Each structure stands twice: as C-alpha cells, then as structure tokens.
Amino acid sequence: MNLARIKALCMMVCALCKVQRVTYSKLASAFDSNAASESSLRRIQQFNAQCEISTDLIAKLILKLIPVQARTTLRWTGRTGSSAIPT
Fold first, then answer.
1. Is the whole-model pTM more than 0.85?
2. What angle (nearest 5°) sits at the alpha carbon of residue 86, between those of residues 85 and 87?
C-alpha cells in the first residue's frame, strides 16, 4: 500500500471516529482536508474500488492510534478463526 492510500485510510478511520456513521458522504465531510466534500467522497470511492483492505491492518492501525498505558494482547474470534494482536 502506498503512502497516499495509507493517508486516505487514516483520514477515513479518523473521520469515522468523529461522525460515528458509515455513510460515505458523512465520512467525506469529516475529512481533515481543504478539499471539497465531493472530492473527498470521490477519493473514498476510488480507494474502496482499488484497494483490498486487510482487517488485521485496520485493527493494528486503530490500536496504534489509541493511547495504551500497559502492553496487552487482544484476542478475538472471527469468521476465519481466532487472532491475536499485541498492542
């Protein structure tokens, strides 16, 4: 994944935290960018069309964004089995 896609993913995750919704138009309006909301919406649509997103990658990104006092390991069981991510 290149730097532009990583930045777009980070802005989407941060915007999701702000609006707590999953509609692309609301997400685009919450981007920390000087671009118009319509431009951000196109950016989201292009990102989703061109990039396969790993859920493990997103989980690691979110955990890196959250301040943690002690190092722990998170475990969960999903459709594909159990996983663990050290924080």
1. no
2. 110
